[in-house]
Amino acid sequence: MTLRSKQRIIFYMTGIVIMTLGIALTIHSKLGTSPFDALLVGLFRTFGLTIGSWEVVVASSLIVFNALAEKKKPEYFAIITALVTGFFIDVWVFSTEGWIAPESAGMQLVCLLAGLLFAGLGIAINLQADFAPNPFDRTMLVVRKLTGLNVSLSRALVSLVLAAAAFIFNGPIGVGTVIITLFSGVIIHFFMSYVEKMDQAMLQSSIKKQKAHIS
């Protein structure tokens, strides 16, 4: 395995761990989550299982939809992302629910914003890894291709459909959903430049160490 491959795997796993912590914090804030996560929580409230289990179910459904829409084979590798993400969502939700339970509006907002930052950082790190496709992002690209809309409008359309489904299943749609929808892209973009620089610095450092070890 090459240095680059090892680093991509490290970034991939680190990104998911940080991102899912952010998701858990937004859920605990009780102010609303992203449309996608709100649907997961709504399905959990309606049918049981766990939030992470519904991550796998919904993501798998998106993978099938994307394959049918593009008339291609399903991206089976994307299921890995769904499985890992679902696992860590459950780990963080269950391990933090006993001591993260903000009651006042101020603390709920702090919890939401902390979750938004962690999720944004995690997504930026995961995007830098470019290791396994994200079903939601792929769906956005499929909708863009089918409708001719730009990326922003395609993402907004997918988010609107998810939010409507979350509302039907009593998902946590609220002011937090609006905040996340408006600012998550900005936060991800902010972190990406720093993550890219860190990625290059780590790669150069690893190459230097390898050369020193060989010599």
Question: In words, what does this structure look like?
Answer:
With 215 residues, the protein is mainly α. The protein has helices spanning 3-29, 35-47, 51-70, 78-96, 105-129, 135-147, 151-168, 175-214. Helix 2 runs parallel beside helix 7. It is globular, with a radius of gyration of 18 Å.
| Fraction of residues in β-strands | under 5%
In total, how many beta strands? 0
Main beta sheet: strand number and arrangement? none
* Structural class designation: mainly alpha
H/E element order: HHHHHHHH
Q: State the helicity in percent bands.
A: over 70%
The coarse silhouette is: globular
Enumerate the spans where pLDDT stays under 50 for 5 or more consecutive residues: none
Distance between the termini: 20 Å
Average pLDDT for all residues: 86
Number of domains: 1
Spatial extent as radius of gyration: 18 Å
User: Count of helices?
Assistant: 8
Summarize the structure.
With 215 residues, the protein is an all-alpha fold. The protein is built from eight helices and no strands.
Question: How are the SSEs placed, and which strands pair?
Answer:
Blueprint: H1 3-29, H2 35-47, H3 51-70, H4 78-96, H5 105-129, H6 135-147, H7 151-168, H8 175-214
